[in-house]
Amino acid sequence: MTALKVWSDSNGVVHKGELVGKRGNFEIIDCQLCGFKHAIPLPTFEELAHVYSDEYYSIEKPLYIQNYVEDQEWWDVTYQQRLDLFDSYLELKGRSLLDVGSGPGLFLTKAQAQGWTVKGIEPSSQAAEYSREVLKLDIEEKFLDASLAKNLGKFDVVNLGEVIEHLSDPAEMLKIANGMLHDGGLVSVIAPNDFNPFQKLLEDSCDYDPWWIAPPHHLNYFNKESLSKLLDRCGFEVVHDETTFPIDMFLLMDDNYIGNDRLGRLCHKKRMNFDLNISKNPVLNSKLRKAFADLDLGREIFMVARKRPA
To answer: What is the per-residue pLDDT across 163-209, written as a single tens digit (0 to 9) for each?
Structure first.
């Protein structure tokens, strides 16, 4: 019989669900309250602030900015597709973008070059410094909360790229984003597609440890259904969903890049070449990404959702 775990946060809110994984001092439950899988215990805001302000790029991902800039051609194509998608769904054709967790800033740079008014929020001192000093972007080196949101005004698009998996309360962040949008505005969410069929096959039949379970950096674990339901609860209507290239497919081909940065980088370059080549056929590219999503495959889920009228 599967274990049922119960945990209460500091406010007395009870999280209960089936145990689906463990890592260190953390357990992962399929939470009945939240509607998605997440770690228990959940870190405090202060604990997360320390990790992402000081440690994330310097300790966890020391080569991230260097690799990010090296991959600019691929990112430019990826970001262009997203900006075109926003344009196709924006009812009033607004052009203001808030990027939450803006990282080194290439997405904002791409949007700004095409006439968007842009603003970034990035708690990492290393990434914020690169964005400000090298790319000359408008960056708040902070965490987005309700207090900061009141001072930033309204936007046509709020982008949350690989953000909500890191938060103790992703619903709170989505509700803040909702309040920052103009009527008809869009939220864009990218999150890892975890416990997907390829990952489970690798764990159950190929003796892989579930490497995707990675608290305290990844606290929340989504699939297309759970992310869609979370957006709905937070006042959004999903208008577009797709998933990205299923890079864990390389593991099924015996390219074990887990813990091997050199091989991981080589696999990533193959993935970039695939994406760049298939982007030359936009119709096929779109159909393939939708097909991945329909099969619950793909490394990340990408959803665009429109703010529902009050």
So the answer is: 999 999 999 999 999 999 999 999 999 999 999 999 999 999 999 99
Query: Cα–Cα distances in Å, from 234 out to 52, 71, 221, 238?
Result: 25, 34, 17, 11
Which has the closest alpha carbon to 186: 114, 76, 85?
Answer: 85
Residue 40 placed within a domain: no
DSSP state of 133: I
Distance CA 230, CA 15 (A): 16
Phi, psi of 5 (to 5 degrees): -110, 145
> Which tens digit of pLDDT belongs to each residue from 134-166?
999 999 999 999 999 999 999 999 999 999 999
CATH number, residue 218:
3.40.50.150
Give the tokens for residue 248.
């864990």
Residue 263 belongs to domain spanning: 62-307
Structure letter (DSSP) for residue 165: G
Looking at the structure of the chain, the number of domains it has is 1
Q: Is residue 272 part of a domain?
A: yes
| Predicted TM-score (pTM) of this structure | 0.93
285-299 per-residue burial string, b: 16 or more CB within 10 A, e: under 16: beebbeebbeebbbb
Expressed in angstroms, the distance from the first to the final Cα of the chain is: 44
- The answer to whether residue 13 is domain-embedded is no
Residue at 303 is within a domain: yes
Residue 247: per-residue pLDDT = 97
